[in-house]
Amino acid sequence: MMNEDTIILVFAKAPIEGQVNTRLIPDIGVRAATRLQHDLIHQRLMMLRQAKLCAVTLMCAPDAEQAFFLECGRQYAVNLLQQSGDNLGNRMSSGITAALKNYKYCIVIGTDAPALDERLIVQAMKTLYRKDVVFVPAEDGGYVLVGLRRNCDFLFEDISWGTADVMQQSRTRLDEKKISYQELETCWDVDRLDDYQRYLEFRKVV
Predict the structure, then answer these.
(1) Among 150, 155, 158, 106, which residue's Cα sits nearest to residue 132?
(2) How many domains does the chain have?
(3) What CATH number does residue 151 fall under?
(4) Which residue range is the domain that position 141 belongs to?
(5) What pTM value is reported for the model?
(6) Per-residue model confidence as pLDDT tens digits over 160-187
(7) Would you call 86 exposed, middle or buried from its count of C-beta atoms within 10 A (0-12, 13-18, 19+)?
(8) Is there a domain that residue 187 lies in?
(9) Most buried pick, 60, 83, 159, 193, via CB within 10 A?
(10) How far is 81 from 154, CA to CA, in rounded Å?
């Protein structure tokens, strides 16, 4: 069932050789790292298309004119927007601010958490009926989903992106501002070699 008051923003980098999954390249090589990015994006968009939860916009980097993204737009019937900002926090904040002008609820996800499934996303959507912010924390100390029903620019400023401190810094900011939030069950993402091997096993059983 479509939730017309909600939008999901999927942040993704185009699968350009040497520019994606760079931490994995020393272990699996450029071609496998690029293929991984390609597959993760398609898997995420396929899941969202089948779930039909709400509007979906693919937030594209470096730009929405990449042939890969144009094909994704056609194949999955999603809107394409270019990410805007000089760091991850700015890009997320910019996308959320624009989305909340047209939707009551905004959920932001990436493509590198294959275990983030429809069930968890639906749970996050329902949580926003009661809380201002919802997270799906990552095992490595970050998060793989954040949902909001109000602008919280401070959540995306001066955060140590890519470190184990991201989730804790976010908690501290929300506690200081006395803004209600909830964390759902922790999820894993693909960042290191053992994550990649876990992903390969995961794909065998789903």
Answers:
(1) 150
(2) 1
(3) 3.90.550.10
(4) 3-200
(5) 0.96
(6) 998 999 999 999 999 999 999 999 999 9
(7) exposed
(8) yes
(9) 60
(10) 23
